[in-house]
Amino acid sequence: MTEALYVKSEDMVFAQMQCDAGGAASVCQLVGPEISKTINAGVAAYDGCSIERRVNYDETAVVLGGTFRILTGEDYSRVIEAKFGDVIWLTKGTRLKYQGDKAKVFYARNPVDWQARSESIADEKPLTEVYHFRSTDMIYSQMQIYSGGYASTCSLVTPEISKSLGATIATFNGSSVDWTTEYDQISVGLGGVMRIRTGEKYSRAIDARLGDVIWLPKGTPLKYEGERGIMFFVPYPVDWRLRSQPVRPRPWPASVR
């Protein structure tokens, strides 16, 4: 099992991407097959550019700054403009154009090795249309915390619309939650200070701020804490709750007892 990986926003190094029509685009690849078997993740920047693609991955993304634009649908007639805190979900086979105005976007994709795959997806239809979750429309549910403080979650990408990745935004303020990940997880800070304690006796404290990224492999014991912390979490698999539930034996039919 790999250890937790923490990358500060200020330490990220970006490489230029090729654009179809001027402008500038760059990417900082953070998690790939050398670290993960499930999630590919990074941060991308788009400014005055256009990148056309039929994607061979499922993807969820959250906007960290600027205006992120996706053109999709017939003749690219559907235009999605996402602002800070907005979340996007799209699935394999989606035909689109990535655009933006000084946009900075954190993304997570599955499969992790999508860049190395060569299978044709020309005739593949996406599982769903592109979802745009606006931050202004998100509704949070309070979490039960026994140690004081406050915590809440807003579930966005669920098994109803995904077969791979999930996506949730959570807040932690003055609270402490013990947890062990039953999934691989990548996350990015959206505000305040999001603290994750891990390692032996929780001796390693990671304080994540806006744009900082944390990778946690399945089976990581930790504590979630925060000071007005807001974080975007992406677990794999999306249905980890169902998989973690014990299977109860079914009773024998009366005819064979």
Globally, the shape reads globular
Strand content: over 45%
Q: Which runs of at least 5 residues are low in confidence (pLDDT < 50)?
A: 247-257
Mean pLDDT across every amino acid position: 92
Helix percent band: under 10%
Biggest sheet character? 9 strands, antiparallel
Radius of gyration: 19 Å
Query: What's the count of strands?
Result: 18
Ends apart, CA distance between termini: 45 Å
- Helices and strands, in N-to-C order? EEEEEEEEEEEEEEEEEEH
What structural class should be given to the helix and strand makeup? mainly beta
Short description:
By secondary structure, this protein is an all-beta fold. 2% of the residues lie in helices and 51% in strands.
Structure description:
The protein is an all-beta fold and 257 residues long. It has one helix and 18 strands.
SSE layout and pairings?
Layout: E1 5-7, E2 15-16, E3 24-31, E4 40-47, E5 50-54, E6 58-72, E7 78-82, E8 87-90, E9 95-110, E10 131-133, E11 141-142, E12 150-157, E13 167-173, E14 176-180, E15 184-198, E16 204-208, E17 213-216, E18 221-236, H1 240-244
Antiparallel strand pairs: 1-17, 2-3, 3-4, 4-9, 5-9, 6-7, 6-8, 6-9, 8-10, 11-12, 12-13, 13-18, 14-18, 15-16, 15-17, 15-18
Brief descriptors of the model:
257 residues, mainly beta, nine-stranded antiparallel beta sheet, 1 helix, 51% strand, disordered C terminus
